[in-house]
């Protein structure tokens, strides 16, 4: 992980108005730490895997992570092929706008803002509940969840205000710790030969993979990858963007996919193919900690409970960094007030955008607390449901944008990178989106009105992009900056 003792100030970009770029020397490893931390590996293993097993396809659920990783690999091929042709660090909306036009790009920007605000809010609610549960479990006082959330929000805001490399160091430590404890559990299960039924073979048996509700299983699996796609948002702070961003994207996807598949398979093996569904349904929130206590010891279970909290904090910090850079980029392109696009002269950070992100998060949590919402059953499930659909929509649009862009410009004539892989990714993501929309009420805590409302919210945000493009013709003027003259075609 690269370090910089005295980061240089962000340099203004000349043009019709003063615009700023962030600076840094992040390598692929540092970016991987941030985006994998956003995926919250321990949270997925301890929280989503038991639900995916119980509500999805049972012992065959680990195979869903393989399917999800393959679909996202197709997406990543086109996404990274386009990286060298999109100089803007706006990630999704820059890619969509470059390929499909400003209206689609601005609509994608609004969907991205909603998605990352809601996913960060979901984790803010969850972490407040878990901190209180952890403190009271060790004899401490019981306090309202929102007090703990306020503390986490303040610490996140402080780190987000500083240079990005401080966050990357913190995330690196937390990520290594949470991944390490799960790998210890995986190794213990494997070395002990699993439970009474031995090591599971369900993930390679079609009858098991297709049993139960594989569609629901795939839905929960794809949600576990949210965050890996944000590598491009750190373009301006990368050491060598045209190489670092593709490497970080592939590496993050590989790490997340292998880790989820291995660890969920180990959990199934620990209980047995015939017993895992009942065990997961009986105690979805505690089965992984119980497994750690049985196979590694009570000390490991205690450590895992603590790291569960730090995993959520790492996810919050990573999402804060991503969201603040979206706000920064949108300020620079005229979509949001220009003040949001200012960078700190010392820290070379999007300090105004970071403060805005902190304020929005605080406001959202205040509304939820005043409404008396449950931090897990309502705040987490509702907001995470909105974010899951929004991110898949953005990835689907990005795949389509890649195909259209390269067909139109001929900048890259490699069929696999510019047509076949992104085309397959678009098909896979479209199918996943259908599953998500059909089961959106489930993601929203079982409420059909909330599910419909979430879908309408995202649809209106996307459609508003074309209205915004007409109302503010100078907004996001660089979305279509890439032209055939920018680069020589690749054969």
Automatic annotation (TrEMBL):
- Kindly provide the name given to this protein in its UniProt entry: Amino acid/polyamine/organocation transporter, APC superfamily
* Primary subcellular site in the record, as a coarse category: membrane
Q: How does it sit in the membrane?
A: Multi-pass membrane protein
Checking InterPro entries in the record gives: AA-permease/SLC12A_dom (IPR004841), APC_superfamily (IPR050367)
- Give the species this sequence originates from: Geodermatophilus saharensis
What would be one Pfam family of this protein? AA_permease
Q: Where is the Amino acid permease/ SLC12A domain?
A: 31-438
Q: What do the Gene Ontology cellular component annotations say?
A: membrane
Its keywords, alphabetically, are:
Membrane, Transmembrane, Transmembrane helix
Membrane-spanning regions, if any?
26-51, 63-82, 103-123, 143-161, 170-191, 211-228, 248-268, 303-323, 352-373, 379-406, 418-437, 449-469
GO BP terms: transmembrane transport
